[in-house]
Design brief:
The complex is a heterodimer of chains A (327) and B (533). Chain A is mainly alpha-helical and 327 residues long. Chain A contains twelve helices and two strands; from the N terminus they run H-H-H-E-E-H-H-H-H-H-H-H-H-H. In chain A, strands 1-2 form a two-stranded antiparallel sheet. In chain A, strand 1 and strand 2 form a beta hairpin. With 533 residues, chain B is an alpha+beta fold. Chain B is built from 16 helices and 21 strands. Chain B has a six-stranded mixed sheet with strand order 16-20-15-19-17-18. Chain B has a four-stranded mixed sheet with strand order 1-12-11-10, with no helix packed on it. Classes of the chains: A mainly alpha (327), B alpha+beta (533). Chains A and B meet through helix 2, helix 4, helix 6, helix 10 and helix 11 of A and strand 12, helix 7, helix 13 and strand 19 of B.
Chain lengths: 327, 533
């Protein structure tokens, strides 16, 4: 098989996946019971305006929801080709702007959390593997397994109560001080980092176990290889053996996991954003599903799908670079 | 210059007094100074409820009330009833078909343009073409306004289709928008510029951040009406309202549970208010699906077999009052205390059932649709308790739960046997009885608008019509009282309980909180922030 035809094959694979996702994104929200305009109940103590039939009919016509599903679908695709991802029904704003203003928050905490959990997890995992079955390994292993079994929101709430409320080291909520006037941009960045600290910490702890276990296993496999014995026989320093010879080879599955775990981290972000009232996409997604804002749900899932597919592609490419055996 | 000097003198005086009073530990003195000199900044728990225009705020949550800080209406909802607002006086013709409002003088839009009768006419005409999110201008889905006429700069005359008793509040509660801004707007849903948030109201929108869910309002210096007592009103994101309140990030906490209540009740620094019972749960029977329920005895058996006090105690943790069989809760201006009350009595329920064994499916929601997930499973808890106590009388319940939207859609389609629904608005005009019980109703404005499938009672229907057309308030009240008695006896649906949540704040910082006569939230009331007696 020559190179260009393999690229073509890959590209068509991605295109097909993308189309399937688009279609599911379109139909699944619309097949859920309920529509964006029915509100009979409200949560306790809250208020809700119930629309009249006439209003519902008007809104449906306004958003084109009165047309047959297939017409809606084709106009969705047509709009998408022009780069128009629609106008949010509930938020009364273009989906691009609604998502755009929040994506930056979520992406930052997600990337930071992946980076931190991957780095720490890998280092700890490698050390654990090196000292496997020793006390250090056993204690660390059970500790990390234990904390990664705690649900994300619980860790978040504990941090919120202790570090933010009791000790007052961090703000209780939000992504940035509301209505603050900063004298310079350093102050602003510090404030943002200050707000992001607990969400990132929580997310990192949740992901830590995954990277730890993966690197530990991968490392153990590598350490039993013949070339490791050679390295040890050469009298190389432990640190050098672990991080230079072993880790480099054990890294492959970890790299793949970094890219593939993105989807999972996003779902963790939903919980964490809720706990800290962080202005990200996670909270938005929850809201959008709850109010059946079809257009916005489509938009968010489109964004997630594109991100995950891109990450897959990147993983594919990087894997080839790292491992010469993959053609 | 003089002001500056005055300010600094006052500041020195303040420091001095603080220093002196500090030793004697007298808090009231300190508070007085605070309120008279410093600008009053009130922070409240916020969430994104949309851009505060009549078209852009969301239907869920208090967006409507944020919008009302900016936009005034002809009448305002006071503590006892409607009070004059943009309109000084009003007159309803004898035949009930003409409403004439005389406007206040010297009212200005926040951009400085004077407001006139033309703006009033324009607003109503515009809303007829483009209904706002919260639309009061319809009865049973039909617009009731025939014409609006600006007689002169200060007089507006409305002609209505039918002489209905409920129109004054509906006309009076409609927001007034500036003609000079909105006459150019073709698509009000997409009109979200700063211009769109210009009204005549006591507060001006200074900042709105959708992602954070933050709003900043400042007092309108040229406000025509009562003086704003709050200079800056901010709604900020909050993760946990108890923590935020204790840390002083917010100045009022409306999410106090019974468990932490004593902490504030026993401390003089705080003041606790209990909300009127205008938010509640009710059990609706679908008599189309289960014709047995057309039998009054069976419905009464349900009413006797439900221990409402237990629900209040165990689910609402005592922050509620048991539902009133006559629907209107205690505290409603037209509540009839003489309506039949069903004390929990299993034996009576058994007698009424005459040994029949019945089983029903109860549809509830399992998800909480607020962003705060504290009280998430109250509906399920109620359902479980109902199941236990009804079983004792011989009625078997099986519980189906679905997410809120799914449940709401099923209820709308009549796809249930018995359902449990919670909503607000129980303090509204007594016509809500008609929308909640009359068979002609399919749906309308109020959240309670959801008639009981398969239920119709000629006597009730006649009374519903009568109260709707009775222009004399005293006579109408009599009819409404009769309706409540009849409803309580017929019990076509069972109000379970109405919540009376608690609100806590520090009176030293701000003590203006007031309720509207028909609503359960002090922070929603714009009169809370104004110097009104």
């Amino acid at each position: 098989m020559n190179k260009s035809s393999s690229i073509l094959k890959k590209a068509s694979e991605y295109l097909l996946t993308f189309l399937v996702i688009l279609t599911l994104n379109f139909f699944i929200p619309r097949l859920m019971p309920g529509d964006p305009f029915i509100f009979l109940s409200s949560s306790e103590g809250q208020v809700t305006i119930t629309y009249s039939e006439e209003q519902i009919a008007k809104y449906k016509a306004y958003y084109g929801l009165d047309k047959p599903m297939i017409v809606q679908y084709s106009s969705y695709l047509a709009n998408l080709l022009q780069g128009n991802i629609g106008y949010s029904i509930y938020y009364n704003n273009s989906v691009l702007s609604v998502i755009g203003k929040r994506v930056i928050w979520t992406v930052s905490i997600v990337l930071a959390a992946i980076f931190i959990s991957c780095l720490i997890g890998t280092v700890l995992g490698s050390l654990s593997a090196w000292y496997r079955n020793g006390t250090f390994d056993k204690v660390l292993y059970s500790f990390i397994i234990a904390i990664s079994e705690i649900p994300a929101f619980l860790i978040g709430i504990i941090f919120l109560f202790i570090l933010a409320a009791k000790l007052g080291w961090f703000p209780l909520s939000g992504g940035i001080k509301t209505f603050a006037n900063y004298s310079n941009s350093i102050e602003k960045v510090t404030d943002i980092l200050h707000h992001a600290f607990l969400p990132v910490l929580t997310l990192s702890i949740i992901r830590l176990g995954e990277f730890y276990l993966l690197s530990r296993n991968s490392m153990i496999a590598v350490l039993t290889k013949d070339y490791m014995r050679t390295a040890r026989a050469k009298g190389l320093h432990n640190k050098r053996i672990i991080f230079r010879h072993a880790l480099k080879n054990a890294l492959l599955p970890i790299v793949t996991r970094v890219f593939l775990s993105l989807g999972a981290v996003f779902s963790g972000a939903i919980l964490v954003e809720n706990v800290f009232h962080y202005p990200g996409v996670g909270r938005l997604m929850r809201e959008a599903v709850m109010v059946r804002d079809y257009v916005l749900i489509q938009g968010i899932f489109l964004f997630v799908a594109v991100t995950v597919l891109t990450m897959n592609l990147l993983a594919d490419i990087i894997y080839r670079r790292l491992d010469p055996r993959v053609n | 210059m003089f002001k500056k000097i005055l300010k600094s003198v006052l500041a020195i005086a303040l420091v001095a007094t603080l220093g002196l009073t500090g030793c004697s530990n007298s808090k009231p003195a300190e508070s007085k100074i605070e309120t008279t000199n410093k600008p009053v900044v009130i922070n409240l728990e916020g969430e994104d409820v949309g851009y505060p225009t009549p078209f852009s705020h969301y239907s869920r949550g208090p967006g409507n009330y944020k919008m009302a800080l900016i936009f005034d209406s002809l009448l305002e909802r006071g503590e006892k009833g409607y009070i004059p607002w943009l309109a000084d006086q009003w007159d309803i013709s004898k035949d009930g078909l003409t409403y004439t409002f005389t406007l206040k003088k010297n009212v200005k839009w926040q951009d400085g343009t004077p407001m006139t009768a033309d703006d009033i006419k324009f607003s109503f005409d515009y809303f007829a073409k483009h209904p706002p999110v919260s639309n009061d201008l319809a009865v049973d889905n039909k617009s009731f306004i025939q014409s609006v006429e600006a007689v002169d700069a200060a007089t507006v005359r409305f002609k209505v289709e039918k002489p209905l008793s409920i129109l004054l509040g509906k006309i009076g509660n409609t927001r007034i928008i500036p003609k000079h801004i909105w006459e150019k707007v073709e698509d009000p849903l997409k009109f979200n510029t700063p211009e769109a948030a210009i009204g005549t109201g006591p507060f001006v929108l200074k900042d709105y951040n959708k992602e954070q869910g933050a709003y900043k309002f400042e007092a309108n210096k040229d406000f025509w009406g009562p003086k704003p007592m709050v200079d800056t009103l901010q709604f900020i994101p909050v993760s946990d309202s108890v923590l935020a309140f204790d840390k002083g990030e917010i100045d009022l906490n409306g999410k106090i549970t019974t468990d932490i209540l004593p902490k504030y009740q026993n401390d003089k620094e705080y003041k606790v208010l209990q909300n009127p019972a205008f938010w509640g749960y009710r059990l609706i029977f679908n008599m189309d699906k289960r014709t047995e329920l057309k039998d009054k005895d069976i419905r009464q058996a349900f009413a006797y077999a439900i221990d409402k006090n237990e629900l209040v105690e165990k689910v609402a943790r005592k922050a509620a009052v048991p539902g009133n069989a006559g629907y209107l809760p205690v505290g409603h201006v037209w509540f009839n205390p003489k309506a039949k009350n069903y004390e929990f009595d299993i034996e009576k329920a058994k007698q009424l059932l005459q040994g029949k064994k019945l089983s029903f499916k109860l549809l509830t929601s399992n998800s909480n649709n607020s962003s705060n997930s504290n009280n998430s499973n109250d509906e399920l808890r109620i359902a479980e308790l109902l199941k236990i106590s009804l079983a004792k009388a011989g009625i078997e319940l099986s519980i189906n739960s679905a997410d809120t939207k799914t449940r709401d859609a099923a209820v709308k389609k009549g796809n249930y046997e018995i359902t449990l629904i919670g909503h607000g608005g129980w303090g509204g005009d007594a016509d809500l009885l008609r929308t909640a019980y009359s068979p002609q109703m399919t749906s309308s404005q109020s959240p309670s608008a959801n008639s009981i499938p398969g239920y119709s009672n000629d006597q009730l229907n006649k009374l519903f019509e009568q109260q709707l057309y009775e222009m004399d308030a005293a006579k109408r009240k009599e009819i409404v009282f009769k309706i409540q008695e009849l409803i309580a006896e017929e019990i076509p649906q069972i109000p379970l309980y109405n919540t009376t949540g608690y609100v806590v704040f520090k009176p030293a910082k701000f003590d203006g909180w007031k309720y509207m006569f028909d609503h359960h939230e002090v922070t929603h009331n714009k009169l809370s922030y104004l110097d009104v007696k």
